[in-house]
Amino acid sequence: MKEDAVKDATRLTDIHWVVLQEIHANLALLLTASFTRKFDEVVEVDINDVQKTAYADFITRLSNPSFSYQFLLKPTHGGVILNFSNSL
């Protein structure tokens, strides 16, 4: 019975997914503006997908070659991985 309660508590609802997608879209807009200003060139930032996946599966799907930067995002301290394709 306790395992079911834990699974329900960790399950994301449709509302959670909508909020996560909005957060990612806003981050993409902020990164687009920041990189465009910094590089003085038009930079496009895309969100490929928002999904729950195993870390190993995520890593194997990154483009190769590429550059990835991992950090914690305040205030939630959630893990973030920015992956830059080789075309940069």
Structural write-up:
This protein is 47% helix and 18% strand. The protein is α+β, with helices and mostly antiparallel strands and 88 residues long. The chain folds into 2 domains: 1-47; 53-88, no CATH class. A two-stranded antiparallel ribbon has the order 1-2. The chain starts with a helix and ends with a strand.
Give a topology summary.
Layout: H1 2-10, H2 14-39, H3 55-60, E1 66-73, E2 78-85
Antiparallel strand pairs: 1-2
In short:
With 88 residues, this protein is of the alpha+beta class. It has helices at residues 2-10, 14-39, 55-60, and strands spanning 66-73, 78-85. Strands 1-2 form a two-stranded antiparallel ribbon.
Low-confidence stretches: none
- With strands numbered from the N-terminus, the spatial order across the biggest sheet is 1-2
Number of domains: 2
Q: What is the CA-atom radius of gyration, in angstroms?
A: 16 Å
> Structural class, please?
alpha+beta
Largest sheet: 2 strands, antiparallel
Give the oligomeric state: single chain
Features:
2 domains, 88 residues, two-stranded antiparallel sheet, alpha+beta, 3 helices
